[in-house]
Amino acid sequence: MNGLIMAAQLLLALTILVGLHEFGHFLFARIFKIRVNKFYIFFDFLFPLPNVLNFSLWKKKVGDTEYGLGWFPLGGYVDIAGMVDETKDASQLSAEPQPWEFRSKPAWQRLFVMLGGIIVNVILGMMIYTGVKYVWGDTDYAKEELNKSGIFAYPVAEKIGLQTGDKIIKINGSDYKYFSDITAAIVKENTTFTIEREGKTFDVYVPNELIDDVAKKKMFITPLFEFDILNVMKGSPAEESGLRAGDKVISLNGEPVKYYQLFTPKLRTYAGKKVELGILRDGTELTIQPTVSADSTIGFTMNPLLKVTKSEFTFGEAVVEGSKEALSIIPQQINGFSRIFKGHISPQNALTGPVGLAQMFSPQWDWEKFWILTGMLSMALAFMNALPIPALDGGHVVMLIYEMIAGKAPSEKFMERTQQVGTFILLALMLYVLFNDTVKLF
């Protein structure tokens, strides 16, 4: 059930993003009086074979344009008259160009049509982040709160010399404000943390290649926190043993317990066995004896006892902060590709397919996280479409810039061939990420 909820959120996000991306092309085509034959969410053919399994789930013709919902759930498209794309080849454009066709328009107008999807995705990303800031604000752990107990170091962090309980004092010699500043620094190159441990201060260098381990293992560091019981699940060992919301676990089989991240590994060692939990309830110490389930849980959700800093924004502030955060994703994408080429991170760990994307969404429907991820994907989609690969918008833009500089357009046959090459590259990349997703699942 959780997997279906995550998949549904991804499908909704992509439908919104692709639909509005294609609307960007549609809008600029209409502005310049170019005829649009089709506007489809999903493909009404077996992509990338435009003449195979041609049927739609729904369609309606309004004026010159057929609007529809395709059966092949992979993106969508607009069929712009007089343009070589994934829906047609050069042989279909052998007739004399008509005034309402794409190929008859000046290069600068065609450039705007090709940039339309990217422009809309960037605007959409900024609008989504603005809305998230305005409705939900920002939540984070301040440096002062984080350094009360320090960090919990996962094996990847321990590999470079960090330890649980370390307090991060500075990043690259400068002060910082929030925990998110630390996580952002991890993905940058040549990062150094200044650490306080047992009254001593020293530097820990983050190797550039560590990003590959972080991408593979996912977890690096988290704030170390105490906890109490938020909810007890019905019919669980926790409920049967008498655990209640508000209780604070203080020991496990006589061994003191303070932090959640240290409690759960210890609990895993007792899977299938009865344990003795010391708890604090309304100032009184009690003992309960739940049986740990086969999956190493006893059936409760915890409440982290770590103060969260919440920032709220006026609408004007939300526009500024939301736009800034949305636009920051572009240099992050550039940095990610740069680090792949530098060998800091392997492609299989850097590239994510549909399964990996679905797993980023919450297993319960969470609108805040949904919109944050949708905004991020909108900016990533804008960046990916801007890459100078034939069949992507960026490939068409390169050809149009060439035409504007050279004073003549490449032949339609050449455009058809580059489109075929680009489609092959995209399909190969798609198969690679699908295979990569499958390998990660197992």
Automatic annotation (TrEMBL):
PROSITE patterns given in the database record: PDZ (PS50106)
Signal peptide positions on this chain: none
Gene Ontology CC: membrane
Record-annotated membrane-spanning stretches: 6-27, 39-58, 107-129, 370-389, 418-435
Superkingdom of source: Bacteria
UniProt keyword list: Hydrolase, Membrane, Metal-binding, Metalloprotease, Protease, Transmembrane, Transmembrane helix, Zinc
InterPro entries, per database record: PDZ, PDZ_6, PDZ_sf, Pept_M50_Zn, Peptidase_M50
Protein EC: 3.4.24.-
Subcellular location: Membrane
Pfam families per the UniProt record, alphabetical: PDZ_6 (PF17820), Peptidase_M50 (PF02163)
Location (main, coarse): membrane
GO MF term list: metal ion binding; metalloendopeptidase activity
SUPFAM superfamilies the UniProt entry points to: PDZ domain-like
Biological processes, Gene Ontology terms: proteolysis
Cofactor: Zn(2+)
Domain PDZ span(s) in chain numbering: 229-258
Record's bilayer topology term: Multi-pass membrane protein
Uppermost EC category: hydrolase
Family assignment from sequence similarity: Belongs to the peptidase M50B family.
Protein's name in the database: Zinc metalloprotease
Taxonomic lineage from the root: Bacteria, Pseudomonadati, Bacteroidota, Cytophagia, Cytophagales
